[in-house]
Amino acid sequence: MDYQTLKARHRIERDAHHPNLALRVHRALSWLNRAEQAEDVDGRFIFLWIAFNAAYATDIDEQYRLSEQESFKSFLQKLCTLDTENLIEKLVWSEFAGSIRALLDNPYVFQSFWDFQNGKITEVEWEERLRSGKRSAQLALANRHTAKVLGVMFNRIYTLRNQLIHGGATWDGSVNRAQLRDCANLLGKLVPLVILLMLDSPRTLWGDACYPVVRT
Length: 216
Description:
Blueprint: H1 3-13, H2 19-37, H3 41-56, H4 68-82, H5 87-105, H6 111-117, H7 123-142, H8 146-165, H9 177-200
């Protein structure tokens, strides 16, 4: 599943979609297209994250605003509910022995590790949190709780996202290649599935898109 395949379908179906869905998918596809053209893993990861963000971000009243992590976890749960062919579950199963397990074992994409480095928690605390997160993901996988596995996985991806977006990493640096490759690999497979499931569910309420197009 790639940009060209999804875009061809979007062109055929978009006029029948609610404007919010059409706009979300259009934006997500544009960033997926850019990600597929990226020659560096840093750029590919960032463009894939923007594509994912374009798909899930919702404009809601400030008093009801969720944290970003809670917002995308809720979105992932919705997708798993809509995924009648278990495409996301199959992806999780196929990747768990490789990229996902590598992320779960990698301290550099675990926020509690950095909290320890910054003196906010003890070494014992961050190590126990790491073990707890791994146990949670393994238990969720054993019980086929795909959304929970994704939630743990995206906690790791979000930490890497913060490092890059907030200037906490060097472009093409030597110290974060493994986690960037693993995260970009996972997002590269998951983002097209996200767009596909949205196209398959045009009657689902996706919410108002952030920053709608305004013509003056």
